[in-house]
Amino acid sequence: MSQRIDLDHGRFRQIIRGKIKQNLRKYISQGEMIAKKGGDKVSIPLPQVDLPRFKWGDKQQGGVGQGDGDVGDAIGGQPGQGPPGQGPAGDRPGEHMAELEVSLAELAEIMGEELSLPRIQPKGTEKIVSWKDKYTGIRTTGPESLRHFRRTYKQALRRQIAYGTYNPKDPVIIPIRDDRRYRSWKSEPLPQSNAVIIYMMDVSGSMGDEQKEIVRIESFWIDTWLRSQYHGIESRYIIHDAMAKEVDRDTFFRTRESGGTMISSAYKLCAKIIEDEYPPELWNIYPFHFSDGDNWSIDDTHTCVELMKSKILPAVNLFAYGQVESPYGSGQFIKDLTEHFGDDERVVTSDIKGKDAIMDSIKEFLGKGK
Amino acid sequence: MAGPRRFPDYLREMQETIEGHARGFGLDFFPIIYEVLDYKTMNEVAAYGGFPTRYPHWRFGMDYEQLAKGYEWGLQKIYEMVINTNPAYAYLLEGNSLVDQKIVMAHVCAHVDFFKHNYYFGKTNRKMIDGMANHAALVRRHMERHGQDVVEDFIDTCLSLENLIDPMSPYIQRQREAKPDDEADDDVPRLRAKQYMDKFINPPEYLEAQRKKKEAERKKAARRFPEEPQRDVLAFLLAHAPLQPWQRDVLEVVRDEAYYFAPQAMTKIMNEGWATYWHSKIMTERAATTAEIIDYADACSGVLATAPGRLNPYKLGVELYRHIEQRWNKGQFGKEWDECDRLDVKRDWDRRLGLGQRKIFEVRRLHNDITFLDEFFTFDFCVEQKFYSVGWNDKASTYEIQSREFAKVKEQLLRSLTNRGQPFIYVEDGNHDNKAELLLRHRHDGVDLDLGQAKDTLKALAKVWTRPVNLLTKLDGKGKLIRCDGEALSEKAAEYTS
Predict the structure, then answer these.
(1) Among all residues of chain A, which has the CA nearest to that of B400?
(2) Residue A317 sits in the same domain as residue A245
(3) Cβ contact B309–A49 (<8 Å)
(4) For residues B226 and A252, what is the distance between their CA atoms, to the nearest angstrom?
(5) Which of A5, A15, A70 is opposite residue B401, by nearest beta carbon?
(6) Under an 8 A CB cutoff, do A64 and B389 touch?
(7) B357 — contact with chain A (CB < 8 Å)?
């Protein structure tokens, strides 16, 4: 149903979007949104959009209340929530709206606009068409395994009432053949380009909590953006120190290992995953690697370069390496990569100096539209 | 929006019954037209302040979002809404129980009676539905011509200044008529002297100098503009700011609507109290059936609940009307009562005058919230109803109960209601510093302005005035002049004399 308010409401949402865009850098670097993620929506602490007025400051104002209590008793309510006293009880909402729900898709769009990220051109011309079954309705025939119990009994009840055979004192309902109802589905062709993101993170001793936080925030945004560009996206997570292993998302962000760093171990595993599961003709592949750039040895770095040249790069859309600054690391690896792949379009490196640099880094990674 | 549903017969019958009871009690109201709305439409109409059409603005969308969220989360539900027009339109929420609808109808009857008879609503436009629709059409037309963003921006600006009106102005004459300038007394006072001494006692040079001084003073006074500080800042801007015609229209719309809504803010407690008084009387004495009485009590207690530190206008209003009724029934007023200082006599004081009903009808006709409380918020009432004042405790960073002293509570109460709970701002000078700058003055009554907001508001004002604007106020006890030249803000110490 369309309402008159829709226009004004849309206008309001637009303004909010503008505000979010303005403050995106802040939200991103503080990681505020991720914490509040639930389903496909996030709640965003809303910047004040109310219009300014001449009004009294809160503190001296005070108010009047009614009821029990001694002088000096604290009044409930958080300070700063607006003065008590004069105020209608319950018939109007509070003055400030603290949070606003935004869908991730919308958020990705806002980010795309703010960073002017180009839309991604999926690799290959042919679209993989998958068929998706959607349970959309009810019909009178179907396999017994899809019988809809409630609908069936409802139908039977309806029939019995109509026939006058229903007795509330002895409520026995017996469905007959015609009462049966089945779930029905529709198969929809779903043009789909498949994509997989392979996240790799260095969890050696030199990667501290702050570094990991940066990785967490950055990968959240990359994930959000890529998801808005592809239907159905897979994520794989690899952590490594001197050894690499594949883990689930949760572990990826929580594990704290120690020990040395052999980046090649991760690249090996990455190459293997691609080889085994993601034929490059069918998949858009995005490996992202985060590390502090302190590799164990030059030899290992060579192994890495070789692996990339022979196995990884031919298969991927984009290989992204983000180097998080750490107080211990030498940060040599990013230089090595630049040296070898400086002119390769498929390789993007980014030096992430701190939380504030996350936005720029995302732009470096995704700005090419690959 | 779906068109208004047909008003169902059972509700129509209910309306007739309730209105019959209300008339029986002496309430007198405009014809009332009810519409039954689903909650979405209800929220929409509420966001528009009860009107079906308003000019396009995102703020209504924001209000709608808040209302919708509040409803979805089960925090609040709008039971009832009624607007001050003739005929009055009132809205019922679809799916409310019959008891609720009865209460709402009784409540609405009293509201409309209040609209019709209260002095402060006397000058409002009773055809405001059309008024609002006209405003909407006007603003839309300007948007089409000048662009939505431009016009909406300017509406934002005007809304920031919306509260700078003089709500009492329809009822009193602020400016004294200019004195006829006959006795343009070039007369300088002379000392009495014998004629031959006059030349020495009142030397002509001195007289001449005096005359010149007076002249200069008069000229200076005449250059003051406005001659007296002006409360209605919006009117001043309309008259003197260099606005384009469409901007003038928008500002006029905003001002007009601000004046339309002002009486509601000025009589919130009285109006809600009156409606509550009557729904309770009509329900308990006439309309509610035995089966409904528990549900009624439940709903009513929800309306009258008080949260710590908050004032519930429904509660305060209804209790005060009842208190007044009882006093006038028992004759607890007048010189004798006031001068009696024997508690036992006062406790049993009952002259059986039975004037209560007459008195509250009179009160609802003549008063607004401030005079209502000033006159009838008595010591007894304050103690009986357990009122306290609330203040900010800096150390504990929380609000706390500050006092239960009658004088303090009442002062706080009145202050929070004065000028609808907003600071007094006057136009002091439209040619400040002789540079066509605008000077506003905040009349400081013990509470500082919210500085951040004040600065942003000044920016909005500068947009309208197009020249730099200044605000004289007091912060932490020191005079301060805040200046905004359109972009940059500056502050400096200034003399603030009250």
Answers:
(1) A74
(2) yes
(3) no
(4) 71
(5) A70
(6) yes
(7) no
pLDDT value at position A88?
34
* Claim to verify: residue A197 and residue A236 sit in the same structural domain: yes
Do residue A156 and residue A267 come from a single domain? Answer: no
Q: Are strands B387-393 and A99-103 parallel, antiparallel or unpaired?
A: unpaired
Provide the CATH number for the domain around residue A257: 3.40.50.410
pLDDT computed for residue B109 by the predictor: 96
Integer CA distances (angstroms), B221 to A8, A259, B231, B430, in order: 48, 85, 19, 13
Strands (E), A73-177: 85-86, 99-103, 128-139
Predicted structure pTM score: 0.74
Q: Is residue A59 part of a domain?
A: no
Backbone φ, ψ for residue A171 (5° rounding): -75, 80
> Closest approach of chain A CAs to the CA of B44, in angstroms?
6
Q: Return the pLDDT at A93.
A: 33
Task: Check A79 against B310: CB less than 8 A apart.
Answer: no
* A140 shares its domain with A107: no
Domain finish residue from A166, A189, A212: A189
Residue of chain B minimizing CA distance to A83: B399
Write out the two tokens for B219: 């000229």
Question: What is the ipTM metric for this complex?
Answer: 0.81
Residue of B392, B409, B420, B448 to mutate, interface with A, max A Cβ within 10 Å: B392
Residue A90 placed within a domain = no
Residue A134 C-alpha, separation from nearest chain B C-alpha, in angstroms: 28
Show residues of chain A in contact with B460, CB under 8 Å: 52
Number of domains in chain A: 3
Q: What is the largest CA-CA distance in chain A?
A: 88
Would you state the structure tokens that stand for residue B120, as one six-digit string?
Answer: 């402060």
Lowest mean pLDDT among B2-6, B110-114, B318-322, B346-350: B2-6
Which residue range is the domain that position A3 belongs to?
1-49+97-114
What's the pLDDT at A40?
65
Residue B446, classed as helix, strand or coil, is coil
Å between A48 CA and nearest CA of chain B: 12
Listed by start position, the domains of chain B span 9-118+267-290, 308-417, 421-493
> Nearest Cα to B387, choosing from B335, B311, B441, B451?
B311
A204 and A226 in a single domain? The answer is: yes
Residues of A in contact with B373 (CB under 8 A): none
Is A340 among the domain residues? yes
The residue type found at B286 is R
Same domain, A37 and A144: no
One domain, residues A318 and A259 = yes
- How does pLDDT run across B342-384, given as a tens digit for each residue? 888 888 899 889 999 999 999 999 999 999 999 999 999 999 9
Rounded CA separation A285/A196 (Å)? 5
Q: Judge whether B454 is closer than 8 Å to chain A, CB to CB.
A: yes
Question: CA B358, CA B260: separation in Å to the nearest integer?
Answer: 29
CB-CB contact of B432 with B462 (8 Å): no
B187 falls in which pLDDT band (50, 70, 90)?
Answer: low
A252 and A142 share one domain: no
Ramachandran angles phi, psi of B261, nearest 5°: -85, -15
Does residue A223 form part of some domain? Answer: yes
Residues whose CB is less than 8 angstroms from the CB of residue B175 and which lie 6 or more positions away in sequence, other chains included: B227, B228
Kindly give the confidence (pLDDT) of every residue in chain A, 370 residues in length, as a single tens digit, with 9 standing for 90 and above.
457 888 888 888 888 888 777 777 777 776 655 545 555 667 666 655 778 888 888 666 677 888 888 888 887 653 333 333 333 333 333 344 456 777 777 778 888 887 777 766 666 544 555 667 778 778 778 888 889 999 999 989 989 988 888 888 888 888 988 889 898 877 765 556 678 889 998 887 777 778 888 888 888 888 888 877 776 678 889 988 888 888 887 788 777 767 777 888 899 999 999 888 888 887 888 899 988 888 878 888 888 888 888 888 888 888 889 888 877 666 788 888 888 887 788 888 888 888 888 888 888 888 776 6
